[in-house]
Amino acid sequence: MEKKKALTFTFSVVAIILGVTLFKQFDFKNLKFENTGLAIIYAIVFIFSIYLLIKNSKNKQ
Predict the structure, then answer these.
(1) How far apart are CA 45 and CA 14, in angstroms?
(2) Which residue, among 26, 24, 17, 23, has the nearest Cα to 49 in the 3D structure?
(3) pLDDT digits (tens, 9 = 90+) for 12-28
(4) Where are its TM segments located (predicted)?
(5) What is the rounded CA–CA span in Å between residue 4 and residue 19?
(6) DSSP letter, residue 55
C-alpha cells in the first residue's frame, strides 16, 4: 500500500513539473514550441504519468 502511495506522489510531481515546463516552452504568438524535440519527449512522459495517475485512482475505488 505504501509503495502505491509513493508511486502516486512521484508521478504527480513529475506531471506537475512537466506540465509547467511545457507551458513555459510554448510560444503563444507563433503557436509553436521553442524546442520541438524536447517538447515531444516531455509531452509523452507527461501523458504517461497522467495515465498512471488515473489508472491508480480507478483501482482505489
Answers:
(1) 9
(2) 17
(3) 999 999 999 999 999 99
(4) 7-24, 36-54
(5) 22
(6) H
Q: Do residues 22 and 42 lie in contact, with contact meaning Cβ atoms separated by under 8 Å?
A: yes
Q: How far apart are CA 5 and CA 1, in angstroms?
A: 7
Contact 43, 22 (CB under 8 A): yes
Find the farthest-apart pair of alpha carbons in the chain and give their distance in angstroms, rounded.
Answer: 46
**10 with 51: CB under 8 angstroms?**
no
Mean of the per-residue pLDDT values of the chain: 90
Predicted confidence band of residue 58 (pLDDT cuts 50, 70, 90): confident
